[in-house]
Amino acid sequence: MTSSLAIPLQDPTSVERLADTVLPTRHGTFRMTAYRDDVAQEHVVLSVGLSDEDSPGRHVGRAPLVRVHSECLTGDALGSRRCDCGEQLQQALHLIMEDGYGALVYVGGHEGRGIGLVEKLRAYELQDAGVDTVDANLRLGHDADQRTYGQTAAMLEDLGIGEIRLLSSNPAKQEALTELGVRVVSRQSLIVPRRPENAAYLRTKRERMGHDPESMDEWQALLQGDEVLTTGQLTERYADLVRPDGPRVIAQLGQSMDGFIASRTGDAVFVTGEEDREHLHRLRALVDAVVVGAATAVADDPQLTVRAVPGPQPTRVVLDPGGALPSDARLLTDGAAPTVWVVGRGVDAGPVGDHVEVATWDGEGAMDPAGVLSLLRERGLERVLVEGGGRLVTAFVEAGQVDRLYLTVAPVLIGDGVPGLRLAGTDRLADALRPPVVRRWQAGEDMVTELDLAATRTT
């Protein structure tokens, strides 16, 4: 198969701004600026935080996060899985909006690395026969990559951007922008999960076009607390928990639509589905300690270990002022993870396994959340997950000790049972607690909502 359309993409050197408006998206509302370059190609820039007259100096010393995204009808608009373009586009918009200072430059005329839509589809035909993406372009008489970035540099200049943090896994893109006078102060890889349909395509980009390798599994990077260079669904959900300034105390509850965590007999197997249990195990793996009350430990005989995902075991903490936990409970016998059994004065704990520390509560009355957290910090346990039951989570929330609350609601109506979160009521809805929603996602049939309780505290 040959082509008579092997015409190099002309390199524009200037642009004209034609429109400035706003674009509401599922990621947030962007400023949207339209351009036409000197070879009649049209482009747009979606930006946030670039016009900030209300807060002068807010971004001093900080370069904007910029994604230069090549037009891809099949991936961006039609959801093709032959490439990763559409998923990269959405992830980039999310990251830029989350950062609050940056831009996505959407470059027209870059379809198929600059060969055009029809030629890209002809290249697909060759790929269907086993040719990789580079050789397919070459067989059609094109370069492996015909894109140029003069228009990008001109748009950035028009927006007053001279230096950027580049969101790209392609070192060649950084080199091209640098040659055009754009100062790239850093480059952050944008790697989305591969799919069976695009595995060969992504391998070719890495092996033949110099794109960044998937050097570290995303989850492993989170577990190590590294600066996460790869981005994806797990990073979006859990990166806050590994940051030094991230939430220190989190709580999780899975409950029915009518607010129960178990039936009236105490049966809790299972309110939420497997996806939510995987989410819970990820939370366990990212904290130092997981805390439950004695009633939950007696009723469920839980393991409180990380089993659904790879990860370290947290220290298991049972708050048991009356010494109700039986001697044969798994938390006291299985040795799968260190365990702190907090009991009241006068409780005879009896013999326990070597993995168990018996801690005596020195306070009077109920074990107050602030005192519990102090006891854990004395043992070097800083990041804490309050897991259950409903009364314990409620006590920590009402005491103002929870930074983030993960509340999973399952599409089931129990009618009567063990209640989940039950805060003290208010006479007026205006006085009800309304924490900001950090994010919300579907976990199978369940809905997980992450709430920022730290933002509701009064100082």
Care to give the gist of this entry?
The protein is of the alpha/beta class and 459 residues long.
Overall description:
- The protein is α/β, with parallel strands linked by helices.
- It has two domains: 201 residues, GTP cyclohydrolase II (Rossmann fold); 210 residues, 3-Layer(aba) Sandwich (Dihydrofolate Reductase, subunit A).
- It is 28% helix and 25% strand.
- Helix 9 runs parallel beside helix 10.
- The chain is elongated and about 85 Å long.
- The N terminus is likely disordered.
Roughly how many Å apart are the termini?
71 Å
Low-confidence stretches: 1-8
**Tertiary shape:** elongated
CATH C-level class of the largest domain is Alpha Beta
Radius of gyration, whole Å: 27 Å
Structural class: alpha/beta
Count the beta strands: 18
- CATH architecture label name of the largest domain: 3-Layer(aba) Sandwich
Give the CATH superfamily of the largest domain: Dihydrofolate Reductase, subunit A
How many separate domains? 2
Please report the number of helical segments: 15
For the largest beta sheet, what order do the strands appear in spatially?
13-12-11-10-14-8-15-18-17
- Our estimate of the beta-strand percent is 15-25%
What is the share of helical residues? 25-40%
CATH topology of the largest domain: Dihydrofolate Reductase, subunit A
Q: Could you report the average pLDDT, rounded to the nearest whole number?
A: 88
Q: How would a crystallographer describe the biggest sheet? A: 9 strands, mixed
